[in-house]
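Reviewer 2 asked us to include a model.

Predict the structure of this chain.
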Amino acid sequence: MSSTLSVLEQIGPIGADSNVGVHRALCLINGQWVEGEGELHDIHSPINGEIVSQVRYASLAQVDAAAKAARAAQKKWAAVPMMTKAKMMHAAADAVLRRGEEISRMMTGEMGKTIDEARHEVIFSITVNCIRAAAEDALRMQGSAAGSIMPQHPNRRVLTQFDPIGVGAFLSPWNFPAEMILNVAGALMMGNTTVWKPSEFSPYTPFIVTEAFMEAGFPAGTVNLLYGGGDIGENLVAHKEVGFVALIGSSAVGDKIARNAPMKRLMLECGGNGPLIVMDDADIDAAVEGAVVGCYYVAGQVCVASERILVHESVHDEFVAKLVARSAEIKVGNPFDEDTQMGPLINERILAKSLAHIADAKAKGATVVFGGGHDGLYHEPTVLIGVTPDMDIARDETFGPVAPVMKFKTDQEALDIANDSQYGLQMAVFTKSLNRAWLFSEQLEAGVVVINRGNMDWDINAPFGGVKQSGLGRETGEEALRCFTNIKHLNFNFL
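Predicted model (C-alpha cells):
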C-alpha cells in the first residue's frame, strides 16, 4: 500500500458538520431519516479491513411503513406537472454533482473500486448524466393518436397513454452503489413513488446519494430508503403496495424475484458472461485495450465484463503477447492513489470464486501465462490460454480480473461459442469488415452488441439490458421509462 493514511482519513469528512469516523447509514421512511430496527452490521473496507461504515437493517414493520408511505404519496406526486418534476430532477443531479467527490471517496472506501472508477460512476459517466437524461427523456415521451383502421368506425380516434404503475421497489448491487438512483429517477419522472433497497455491503454510498437527491425537495414518501438482507428484499418485492420491481443483480436473484412477484412489472438487469470476439482482420492493439478494460475495470466485478475472449487462431499469439504485456503494466494497489489502475476485490467470497475458476481451468488443460495469484483481496491481473467451453470460467461469471482466451477458426464457430451461454447481456466484436460487423450484430444473442470497442462500452442514449438469463426490460432511454408505466388504450367515438 502506497499510502500510510487510514481508509477513514482517505475518505475524509462526510458532510459539512461531520468528523472523520465510522459512518452510519440511516433509512429514509416518509421523509424522515431513521435508524433501522434490526441488527447492526459493520462494513469492513476491502482495502485493509478497517471498519468504514455501519448499517442497521430495517425491520419488516419498517418495510411495510415505507411501502405504505410511498402509496400514500403517489397520487399527489403523479399530479405534479412534468416540467416541475424535471426541474426537481435536474436539481437532484446538481446536488449529487456537488457532493460527487464525497460520494466517490466513500464508494472507494466501502467496496474498493479506484477513485477514478468511482468518479466516473458518480460524476462523469453514469449517475449524474442518467438522472438528467431521465428528466429530458420523460419530457419528450409521447403517446399516440390515430384514426381507426376499421371502415365501420370513421368517427373513432384511438389514443395511447402512459400511466404510472404506483409504487416501485428497487434493489441494487454493491459494485455500482450509486448507479441505481437512475432507475429511481426514471420511475419518479413517470409519476411513481419509490422504495430503494441498496446492497448491504456498500450502504453508506447510496445513503449520501439519497441525502443529496432529497436536497431537491422531493415530497415525503416519494423516495424511501431501506437496508437489509434477503428477507427484507423478499418482503419488499412481495408487498401488496408494490406494483413493479427493478433489480440490478445476479441472475439467481432475478429468478427468485420473478417467482416471488407474480403479475408485477419487472425490470431485471442480471448477470452476463460476455464474449469479446477478435476477428482475424481486427485492429489487435484496439482489441487488447478493449480486453484490458473489459477484464480489469473494477477488478472484473462488472456484469458486462469480458468474461470470455474469443480470438481467431491466426492472430491468437500476437493478441496474447500484447495482452500479457499490457496486463503487466496494470498497477494494483491502494484505490485512493490517483495512479492505481485496479483495487481489491470486495470480499473473500468473490476472491474464492475467481480462484476456483482459475483452478478448474488449469485442471482441465488451460495455462496461466500471466498472474493467477493474490495478496489478500488484491488479485493479480490474470491471463489464461487454452480455455475451452466446458470449463467453469467459460460457463459462469467469474467476477474477477481474469482474461480467459479461447481460440476459434471460423466465423460460425465464433458465433456458436458466443451464443452457447445462458446469458445474453453485452457482447463485443473487433473487425474491420462492415459485413462481419453487421452479421455478427444480427446473430449474437445479446441485448447489446458493441463493434470495435470493448464489452464495457455502453451509451445512455439507447436502451440497456439483456436476453435469456441476463434479464427482462431495459434501463436508460424511453424503453426504461415505458417499464415504469401502464399503457392505456383510449377509445374515443364522436357522436
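The radius of gyration is 23 Å. The chain has a mean pLDDT of 96. We have added this to the supplementary material.
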